[in-house]
Amino acid sequence: MDEPKQLHIAVFPWLAFGHLIPNLKLSILIAQRGHKISFISTPRNIQRLPKIPPHLALNINLVSFPLPHVEHLPPDAEATSDLPTGKIPYLKIAFDGLENSLAQFLQSSSPDWIISDFAPYWLPSIAANLKIPFAHFSIFNAWSSTFIRPGSIEDQRIKAEDFTVPPKWVPFPSKVAYRLYEAKKFLTHFEGNASGVSDVQRVVAIFENCVVIAVRSCMELEGDYINLLGELYEKPAVPVGILPPSADEDGENNDNEGWLTIKEWLDKQNKGTVVYVAFGSELTLTQDELTELAMGLELSGLPFFWVMRKISNSVEGVPLELPEEFEERNKGRGVVWTSWAPQVRIIGHESVGGFLTHCGFSSVSEALAFGRPLIMLPFALDQGLVARAIGEKGVGMEVPREENDGSYTRKSLAESLRLVVCYRH
Ligand SMILES: O=c1ccn([C@@H]2O[C@H](COP(=O)(O)OP(=O)(O)O[C@H]3O[C@H](CO)[C@@H](O)[C@H](O)[C@H]3O)[C@@H](O)[C@H]2O)c(=O)[nH]1
User: Is the pLDDT of residue 254 over 80?
Assistant: First the structure.
């Protein structure tokens, strides 16, 4: 039999580690099959990526495009994790400024395929001009992608209430839906932002114009929704697997020193007792949310490891405060970690008994890969839907929230944590 042709594939992820890491993982899997990858990002992001296995280094070419200068964007900000949430639209402006660099690269290197993320709404016309087919790698699950109906962005009649029931535009096979306070937030992604193009416009442009949708998911988890996604956009929707991480693939350069300090603390805790708390790479809390979270952890009486990103611990530049003497009171029992954490290695440690998560899909899949139960506190984007769908599967429970504004209390948080972590003992 003939050897299959070696393909050259350009992979172009959005500038967020929740996207860069799974795109690199997919690139590694494709390279393992003998194909050649050009993985395109910015200089600082490339430096912070997990290491590529040495035997694949020749097959994966890391291509750096410096971001153009954009007003309001700090010069070293190249990923959403470098910014408070309110500044992310400026990162999108800088990202859109890569259009010419990407077009030139594609023209000169003529890849056989492009794998693109949701953000470059301008890519379809470049790909069409150069006659290069492009696939969309959706790191969002199919539950949430089927919620965005093609054409819904032009529909002025769309209301938050429409998202609180399973969508009417597809035969949605479950009761998974947003709560009203989540739906109101979700609708803001239909509105414009400083980048001039809403997130939904970006997603839909990519879904509508790609040749194939590759979903980071599997049929066992959401087969009906993956099929629905294909029907909705009238093209193949292919699950490529959840792409569970291995413990040495946690991004930001595998900071070993940090890990050794963390491991020393985790090693001292009893098996299955620690609550790992982390809300992904881009979420910003309000002061009330932060206070109730801190006090809930304290009230639970459980050991905790809390990744509290300093950068997002501020709303529009106003720093948030931990409750007075919180760290002193919880010394020894809890750790507040303010830099990038080696999440996958932490979740994999046997002392972790539960993961308090915002339900970013990477965090959820990492927890599932290590069999850690989830205590779910979704905030934005797809997170409410992920929480509901995971709740249906019975591997996590949601922290109860006020129905009208979505607020939560220290008491409800502490009770949920104890219910999940202590139930296992
Ligand atoms: O200190 C940190 C912080 C994050 N991570 C990693 O960064 C990723 C974070 O991804 P995710 O859990 O999905 O959260 P977000 O960064 O919030 O991801 C965005 O993208 C997700 C799709 O993956 C959506 O589900 C979320 O709603 C959206 O906020 C995970 O791999 C984490 O392991 C670390 O390793 N260390």
Answer: no
pTM, to two decimals: 0.90
Report which of 40, 8, 6, 35 is spatially closest to residue 23, judged by C-alpha positions: 40
Is 19 an annotated catalytic residue?
Answer: yes
CB under 8 Å to 125, separation ≥6 — which residues?
A: none
For the CA of 339, the closest atom of ligand 1 is 1
DSSP 8-state assignment for residue 425: -
Asked if ipTM goes beyond 0.90, one says: yes
Residue 350 in contact with residue 370, Cβ under 8 Å? Answer: no
Taking the centre of ligand 1 as the mean of its atom positions, its distance from the CA of residue 128, in whole angstroms, is 32
Q: Is 171 helix (H, G, I), strand (E, B) or coil?
A: coil
Expressed in angstroms and rounded, the spacing between residue 4 Cα and the centre of ligand 1 is: 35
Q: Return the pLDDT at 211.
A: 97
Instruction: Say if strands 36-41 and 60-64 run parallel, antiparallel, or are unpaired.
Output: parallel
Question: One-letter amino acid identity for 51?
Answer: K
Residue in 255, 272, 385, 271 with CA at minimum distance from that of residue 307? 255
Q: Which helix (DSSP H) or strand (DSSP E) does residue 258 occupy?
A: helix 256-267
pLDDT higher than 70, residue 316: no
Instruction: Please state the atom number of ligand 1 nearest to the C-alpha of residue 347.
Output: 33
Label each residue of 6-68 as H, E or C.
Answer: CCEEEEECCCCHHHHHHHHHHHHHHHHCCCEEEEEECHHHHHHCCCCCHHHCCCEEEEECCCC
Ligand 1 neighbours (beta carbon < 6 A):
16-18, 21, 139-140, 250-251, 278, 280-283, 307, 340-341, 343-344, 360-363, 366, 381-383
> What's the gap in Å between 281 CA and the centre of ligand 1?
5
Relative to the CA of 307, which ligand 1 atom is closest?
A: 1
SS3 content of the chain, % helix, strand, coil (to 5): 40, 15, 45
Residue 327 in tokens: 């760290």
Question: How far is 112 from 126, CA to CA, in rounded Å?
Answer: 14
- Name the nearest CA neighbour of 303 among 424, 423, 421: 421
Q: Mutation test of ligand 1: which of 362, 383, 386 has the most ligand atoms closer than 8 Å to its C-beta?
A: 362
Q: What is the pLDDT of residue 255?
A: 58
How far apart are the CA of 156 and the centre of ligand 1, in A? Answer: 31
